[in-house]
Amino acid sequence: MTKTILRALAGETLPTPPIWMMRQAGRYLPEYRATRAQAGDFLSLCYTPDLAAEVTLQPIRRYGFDAAILFADILLLPQALGPKLWFAEGEGPRMETTTTMEQVRALKPKGAIHDTLAPVYETVRILARELPSETTLIGFAGAPWTVATYMIAGRGSKDQGAAHALKNTDRATFAALIDIITEATVDYLSEQIKAGAEVVKLFDSWAGSLKGDDFTDFALKPAARIIAALKARHPGVPIIAFPREAGNGYIGFAKATGADCVAIDNSVTPEWAAANVQKDGCVQGNLAPEHMVTGGEALVQATRHVVSAFRGGPHIFNLGHGITPDANPDNVALMIETVRAGGSRP
Ligand code: 1CP
């Protein structure tokens, strides 16, 4: 096993951490904007395998990241369950809402998702053929809570208020929805693995707004169910969990869910994460994405800081969240150079 990402995920402490970046294929890259324009709109880009594979490969060609992440979106799975999805230009995703038991019961059976999602699996097959032999291919899905927040509100929201309201007022409907997403996610990730994904990642971007028992019931338990089912079907395929902004919820998350790696956001310090999370295994993270906008000496120092804090255990270097469209591509190159120079000045 020579791929550095797979070695880190197996628990090996490497002299230089492997590196990739959340949203590495994205609007900060001129070549992405060109391919997206060619596709016409974001969903056409996601569902056209040649173009989705092309944008996945762009940051690999430009920077030589150690992993490529499938180009798709967490909202394709709920769309495959039936609700309409569209992207309002300049505003973000919009989705037909699911808030009643009738609507939950009207969702398609999980076996029916693959018709819609077939192009995603085809993108994975193209990537498995075309990626350089040292580059690891990561598939992904949204975690049930995060996907549910978009299905319930019909859009992104700062506080996930609509999903919390349904959870607190109509527990049966909310729990039924989480169940359906959980089962469909297992089948979706399983097909990505069959098509050639070597690692899968569960994005729970809004896990931080679940507190106490809610965090256990709707972030931790669904992740544990998905991971157990995937491990039974695909033993040996590593899984990264990202319960973003979980804070103390990060502690013990890998053990409780069976995840091989926990991705850490940048609201906690790398020292804290090394002491409390990396002690149990591989961690991924957690440079603040703002450095990709601001660059300079502060970027170099912060990058060295992250590398050095996690030096004592298995680590995959990444940002604490996705790179933003206003980032400067040269800053990404500087981050990579700094990491590969052992965290010291390149
Ligand atoms: O205009 C554009 O080109 C669309 C911007 C964009 C991109 C590049 C969206 C819309 N999705 C994506 C791709 C994407 N989304 C990937 C591809 C792989 C990569 O390079 O990382 C991945 C992994 C995602 C995952 C995703 N989509 C998440 C989880 C991770 C995170 O950032 O927290 C979430 C919450 C979404 C929903 C979504 N899709 C797009 C937007 C703008 C959003 C957020 C909407 C909101 O909350 O308001």
When the domains are counted, the total is: 1
Number of helices in the DSSP assignment: 16
What's the helical proportion of residues?
Answer: 40-55%
How many E-type strands? 9
H-E order: HHHHEHEEHHEHHHEHEHEHEHHEH
Structural class: alpha/beta
Main beta-sheet annotation = 7 strands, parallel
Low-pLDDT ranges: none
CATH topology description: TIM Barrel
End-to-end separation in angstroms reads 28 Å
Attached small molecules = coproporphyrinogen I
**What is the CATH domain class?**
Alpha Beta
Instruction: Please indicate the percent range of residues in DSSP E strands (runs of 2 or more).
Output: 5-15%
Strand order of the largest sheet: 1-4-5-6-7-8-9
Average pLDDT for all residues? 97
